[in-house]
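Weekly modeling sync, notes
Attendees: S.R. (lead), two postdocs, one rotation student

Agenda item 3: backlog of single-chain predictions. S.R. asked that every request posted to the team notebook include the full sequence so nobody has to chase files. The rotation student volunteered to paste the first one in as an example of the format we agreed on. Action items at the bottom.

Example entry:
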Amino acid sequence: MVAFPPIPVNGAKASAIDPIVYFGEGLMNRIVELRLCRCAAAVLAGTLLLSSPVTAQTPLTAKESDPQIMGWMQGFPPQAGRLITQPDSVYFSFPRLRWSVCHLRELLPTERIHCGLGAPAPLAYPPAHQFAELRKQIDALEFLPMKAEAPMTWEESLYANYTDGMLILHRGEVVYERYFGCLEEDGVHAIMSMTKSITGLLAEILIAESRLDDSLEVRDIIPEIGDSAFADATIREVMDMTTGVRYSEDYSDPNADIWKYSAAASPLPKPEDYSGPDGYWEYLQQVERDGEHGDAFHYKTINSDMLGWIISRVSGKAVTELASERLWRPMGAEQSAYQTVDGKGVPFAGGGITAGLRDLGRLGLLMLQRGELDGGQLFPAEVVDRIRTGGDPDKFSGFPTLEGGSYTSQWWVLHNAHGAFAARGVHGQTIYVDPTAEMVLVRLSSHPRAQNGFIDPTSLPAYQAVAEFLMQRE
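Predicted structure, as returned to the notebook:
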């Protein structure tokens, strides 16, 4: 058993924070009070990022848990109690995660999503005095959080949600940009399950270009899938996560599928007595059936990794290479992104990307503009049209803060009055696209509770408030 140094909480010493491993934000929307896991498997973390347990103690505030204030990894060498290392299994537990989200490449192996060698495409900004005035006005905006009695300001919401970076574009122009915590303008940040939306976008591009038929079954493209439950699922069912596959994420059960997946996907050397699958794709070959394909939406990250395999087989490229070729290079990204890999070098298609705030803004702008950039078409407009249409709301349940929403192509569709849709990651990361307001909002954050259900009540009304404010801007 590894002993962890105590973390100060509100001036007092808290007991040592134990790790719990999470995989995907769907589970976190189903489990509120999480049991602490002391399993050695928690150290694996190559594909599984560690989340903070929900405790009875009040967590440190955003300002108190700022990595600079906490002193993580400062000094030469850092103090023993302020080291964050791998394979120590606490590196993604709060408050350490507020440092780790910006330093994932120091903890896990990654593969580059290359931005290319050309100069980045410039982003448009208003004159400095107008930019400063816009920030002042937006920071002062008030809105009413869900089921709240008192209003909150936009700036208060940033700290309430442990924001590390916020970027807002309106009509193609950056109108708001701020950095907090571990993130600086030249830094990269873990985007967690927003990775899924990039995987889904790549699949939709291949479909629109007639290189992938979403009516085919998985076994038609990946014959190695054998008798796996994925075999007779259609590509569309995988993309929309309506597959009937067994994948348990019950952390109180030492035999749950999550532990088998973590063991298979870990980039660390396997124990001598290990006899299970090796890597993401070997694991997918042994997934069993649970329910009927197409019946209902079930948020299970193994769908994203199955889709990543399909994309790679059809394109002949790793998802990292395809993302570079079709997105990062042509959109003029200013930084390369990076994606974690398993022990065989397979990128984690369900949550492994770290990227820069502005580049995520460029990606959001592409979605708002239906694939168009500077008069050229980077991908067919029908790609975004298909995503914006959304999935079947009747198959979507279990997400009370997204009532009336749906999920398709690994994107969340709100079906609200503005037609908003989003890429979302646990701990509060998002690309939020509002076509009606002509707004793209990107937030990178490190909320202590790995569940968007705790974050949406302040975030979604805040996004709507700033959208309505910008629509009045001349």
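Discussion: group reviewed the output briefly. Confidence is low (pLDDT under 50) at residues 1-56.
Action items: rotation student to repeat for the remaining queue; S.R. to check formatting next week.
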